[in-house]
Design goal:
Structural class: mainly beta
Low-confidence stretches: 1-19
Mean pLDDT: 75
Oligomer: single chain
Helix content: under 10%
Length: 168
């Protein structure tokens, strides 16, 4: 299994090398520097310099990625079901372990801000997360320009095409 994950990381990394600066296909951007090229806005607040805004359900600490006309992100949405753990000493800090969540991948239209599709990759975590520094959706998705890959820790690695069809 480790070789498969390593192969995926290398093949996605090689594919991302051809990304343009207008896209942000991975956590640290198109050039793996964490910076975008071009002019930054001199003024930016809730109303100035904002094309659209969107309320995202749940809790996610991942960085969105951008390819073509799509923006992709992950979130963990509590369902309100499950039993909280008796002990806080569980793996990952223990926050929300035993409480059911939906691990969702969202595709958002880059121009309008409308949700193009939302898919549940997995549900019901068996371990927790660090309440201050993370969430069940802390890992950023990546894209090769045709597919988006989302990793939800021990719940798995998921791949979708740009129309939202699960590939694996």
């Amino acid at each position: 299994m480790q070789w498969l994950i390593m192969w995926m990381a290398v093949s996605v990394g090689v594919t991302l090398a051809g990304a343009t600066q207008a896209e942000w296909p991975q956590w640290r951007g198109p050039f793996n520097t964490g910076m975008a090229e071009g002019d930054a806005p001199l003024r930016w607040d809730d109303r100035t310099g904002v094309k659209w805004s969107l309320e995202i359900p749940g809790r996610g600490h991942s960085t969105p990625v951008v390819a073509g006309s799509r923006l992709f992100l992950t979130t963990a949405v509590p369902t309100g079901r499950g039993t909280p753990p008796a002990s806080r000493g569980r793996a990952g800090g223990g926050a929300d372990a035993g409480l059911e969540h939906r691990f969702d991948v969202l595709a958002i239209d880059r121009d309008s801000g409308r949700v193009a599709w939302q898919r549940t990759a997995a549900a019901t975590p068996h371990e927790g997360y660090h309440r201050v520094y993370g969430s069940f959706a802390s890992n950023s998705p990546v894209t090769d320009g045709a597919r988006v890959f989302a990793f939800f820790g021990s719940r798995g690695l998921f791949a979708y095409d740009f129309q939202g069809q699960p590939l694996w």
